Structure formats: structure tokens, C-alpha cells
Amino acid sequence: MDTVRILSIDGGGIRGIIPLKVLEYIEEVTGQQIHQLFDVVGGTSTGGIIALGLNSKLPGTNEIYTAKQLLDFYTSPEDIKQIFQVENSTLVDKILNFVRRILHILPEDHGPGFLAAEYSSQSINNFLQSKFGQHTKLSQLPTECDVSVFSYDIENASPYYFNNHQALQNCEDDYYVWQAARATSAAPTYFSAEEVDNLKQQRRVLVDGGVFINNPTLEMLIRAKELYPNAKKYLLVSLGTGEFTQKYTNLNNAGVVNWLWLGAPLVNISMTGVSMALDQQLQKLKKEISGLDYQRYQQPLTENIGLDDAKPETISLLQKLGAELVEQNQKQLKNLCKELSLPLKIKEHHYA
């Protein structure tokens, strides 16, 4: 195979609107769907949901979701209400949840009650089942595209990723698609951890992959090299969900309390910093590795938009930011669309 086309999508909750606007543009220009344009696709958290959606059939049909249809998940008032349905809680719970969100303190328990997850697990489970089907398995996804989504196993303290081709080869790696979507997006403090059983009824307890790899671009490149070791070119497209870089000059001599209290910067610094460092590393690899064409599309944010900030004005802002990202990179995106549309030789993959 001459060129392997790779797509990686960051985590970011409701900010998944931004990469979806880019993907919508790509589908409009090429006249093809994402699963027809890329060979290897993956994502974390909201990026994982998008990756699965772009390779899943609408329940009861043979049609695979378009980026535009997935965008409705994030912009439809009915869908948003179902995703972010607040968990029933006492007044004490609500006060403690408010304090916890300020401090970004993670709860030790993941059930209802004291310092519990803020949003209803049952509601988002019902939503994902309605979109992906209650009994559709990873092994039933179209095989033309290799699909990976990332999560973290909190009982074994190790990363775990779902993959459609691994599910085909081993039933221990086969789960329902909606469960994979739920696990990759089980952001601590927002949603409870997801307990998933594979086809052998072996259980894992998983949380959002963003806790260790919010930007999975390097993992996707490694996966592509495993599948296509003899490819001449690796076209690596990485989509961010918006980047807010805040200066914390008032923390120069801060202690533990101030680090926690003054805007909870530790979480933002760690997630943003890791993603930026990864981008810098890949930019260097682009120069050193023959045949690597790395393209990163990221939109700076002027304010910190929360993963669950689904207010109508925020939805409108995110759509505007996504459209601006497309406009600002239109020349590069048009060239990308031309390359993605080129006919390819028969694939010779090496599934591991």
C-alpha cells in the first residue's frame, strides 16, 4: 500500500463540535464519507464517540453516519438534554459537587450519593444505545477501516483500547459498540465509571481515556505502522477540540490550597501541556521520519469551555469556531481532500 490515511480525534466533551465541523467539510468537498477516506481512525472520549459513529450504521438501516448527522448529537436540544441529565441528588450532594467541580477533586466512589457523578449514567446509556444499537458489537463494524477508541481500566491501573479488528479475532476483545462509546467518555466526576462485560462475560471497570491520552495521535500512528509496515507514506490527520492556554502568574509562590482553589489549573495545565508537547514531538518526527505527513488542526480558545457546557450560546460559539478553523485552513484542507480522494492500491494489512 502506497499511502496509509490516519485520522485521530482528541477528547473534549461538547467541544467535539469543532472537529466535526472539519470532518463535515471534508465529506462535503470529497463527496465521500470518512470511513471511505481513511484506513485507520481513532479517538479518545468525545473523539472516540465520533470515531465509532463515523463507522457505525444508523440502527435499523445500512447507512453509516455522516459527520453532519453526528453533529446533531451535539447540537440537538433533545440529545443534549439526554446526555447531560443531572443525577438525582440531595442538597448536600449538590453543594459538594459544586465544590468538587471548583477544585477538580475526583470522587473515590462511582455510585449515586455522596460526591457521586454529576450526570445520570442510565440516561447517557439509553442515548448511546439509541444511536449505536443495543446489541451491535465492535466485531460487526465495517472492516474497511481500523477503528480504535481509548479508555482506562481503573481496577487494573492500565490503559485499555477497543478495536474492531481485534474484536473480530478474539471474543475477549468484543464488546457492544455503545459500551465502548460509554467507556471512552466516562469522564471522572461527570459520569460514573462504566462496567463492561465482553462476550465471555469478563468484566472491566473503565473510565475516560482522556485521563491518560486525551490526544491519541501518536498511538494512531503506531497502530498504522503495525498494520501497514511497508507503506511508503503515512498521512496523519489530527483534530483538536479547542485549546485554551491561560497564564497563571498569580501562582508563582502558591501552595497546595491556591493551586487547587485558583481556577483548578493543575488539570488544565496537565491536559493542555501534554497535548502541546505531543504536537511538538510529532512536528519533529515529521522532519525525521521519511514518508510522514503530519497535519494538526487545532483552534485556540479565548475562554475555557467546559466539557459539559451545552448552553445554546456555547453550542453556537463552538460551531462558529469550527467554521473558522475550516476557513483559516481552507487551502490546506482542500489539498488534503484531493489527496484523500486519490484511488489507492489494494490494502495489505497485518492485523495484530
Describe the secondary-structure layout.
Elements: E1 3-9, H1 17-30, H2 34-37, E2 40-44, H3 46-53, H4 67-75, H5 77-83, H6 91-103, H7 121-132, E3 146-153, E4 158-163, H8 164-169, H9 177-184, E5 194-197, E6 203-208, H10 210-213, H11 217-227, E7 233-239, H12 256-261, H13 265-288, E8 292-297, H14 312-328, H15 330-340
Parallel strand pairs: 1-2, 1-7, 2-3, 7-8
Antiparallel strand pairs: 3-4, 3-6, 5-6
Helix pairs in contact: 1-4, 1-14, 3-9, 7-9
Brief overview:
It is built from 15 helices and eight strands. The chain has 352 residues and is an alpha/beta fold.
Structure description:
The chain has helices spanning 17-30, 34-37, 46-53, 67-75, 77-83, 91-103, 121-132, 164-169, 177-184, 210-213, 217-227, 256-261, 265-288, 312-328, 330-340, and strands at 3-9, 40-44, 146-153, 158-163, 194-197, 203-208, 233-239, 292-297. The protein is globular, with a radius of gyration of 20 Å. Helix 1 runs antiparallel to helix 4. A hairpin with a 4-residue loop joins strand 3 and strand 4 (158-163). Mean pLDDT is 81; it is low at 102-117. The protein has a single domain (3-85, 120-340), classed as Cytosolic phospholipase A2 catalytic domain (3-Layer(aba) Sandwich). It has 352 residues and is of the alpha/beta class.
Throw out a few tags for this protein:
8 strands; 44% helix; 352 residues; alpha/beta; globular; Cytosolic phospholipase A2 catalytic domain; eight-stranded mixed β-sheet
Number of strands: 8
Count of alpha and pi helical runs:
15
Q: State the distance separating the first and last CA atoms.
A: 17 Å
Which geometry do the CA atoms define? Answer: globular
